[in-house]
Amino acid sequence: MDILTQDFYARDTLTVARDLLGREIVRVLPDGTRLVCRITETEAYIGRLDKACHAYGYKHTARTETLFAPPGTAYLYLIYGMYHCLNFVTEGEGEPAAVLIRGAVAVENGDIIAKNRFGCKEKNMNAYQRRNFLNGPGKLCRGLNLTRAQNGLSLTAPDGGLFVCAGQPPAPGAIQTGKRIGIDYAEEAVDFPWRFWYG
DNA sequence: CTTCAGATGCTCT
DNA sequence: GAGCATCTGAAGA
């Protein structure tokens, strides 16, 4: 198992966001079951200069403390009262930044992920469910059974039950870039092309 | 295919 | 009290 180390996350956030495409998120359940999915869509958030980032202007609050944690830390928070978003902390000492995981495809134990999402087996999903399986941050967290209970976990320690493996990154030419989703409040930052996807 | 309202609770002012 | 890095189901074109 080639688990990505802290060096991977301790880089420029835009670089990490691109480089995370094709990588595999491994979620080890308490009973040892491995839920695995491949990352297909990411977004970068950089507190230093990005009004869409929770820690814009180095703002410290109870929620943003995780963004100041070492690179390779999982940042999870509750959104709209009922969904969760999974991020990976990037950059380095004192620089609050992270990559939001917006989309993925199931690789291992898809039946359990499908059960978390729709209460059925992967094979029994209808066409609409297949198309909308893990293509959103809230959907991904629901499928992998991730909540704020995992906030602050280290992604570089295998015993945490959440880490990322090397996987198979796409060819650079296959990566598409665009504006981020759902941050209309962020003034000039709404136009930053910090969303990456492929496939 | 599209738009649209409602759900639901934490976070920050 | 206002707003939120979302999703779903229903209804219409």
Percent of residues in helical segments? 10-25%
**Overall number of domains:** 1
Give the overall shape: globular
Give the percentage of residues in beta strands: 25-35%
Roughly what is the average pLDDT, rounded to an integer?
A: 97
CATH superfamily caption: Methylpurine-DNA glycosylase (MPG)
> Per CATH, what is the topology?
3-methyladenine DNA Glycosylase, Chain A
Please tell me how large the radius of gyration is: 16 Å
* Helix count from the secondary structure assignment: 5
Specify the oligomeric state: single chain
Detail the poorly predicted runs.
Answer: none
What is the class in the CATH system?
A: Alpha Beta
The major β-sheet equals: 8 strands, antiparallel
How far apart the termini lie comes to: 25 Å
Keywords:
199 residues, DNA-binding, single chain, 8-stranded antiparallel beta sheet, 17% helix, 8 strands, 27% strand, 5 helices, 3-methyladenine DNA Glycosylase, Chain A
Topology, please?
Elements: H1 6-9, H2 13-19, E1 24-28, E2 34-46, E3 74-79, E4 83-89, E5 97-108, H3 110-118, H4 127-131, H5 137-144, E6 162-165, E7 176-178, E8 195-197
Antiparallel strand pairs: 1-2, 1-6, 2-5, 2-8, 3-4, 4-5, 7-8
The structure holds a DNA duplex (13 and 13 nucleotides).
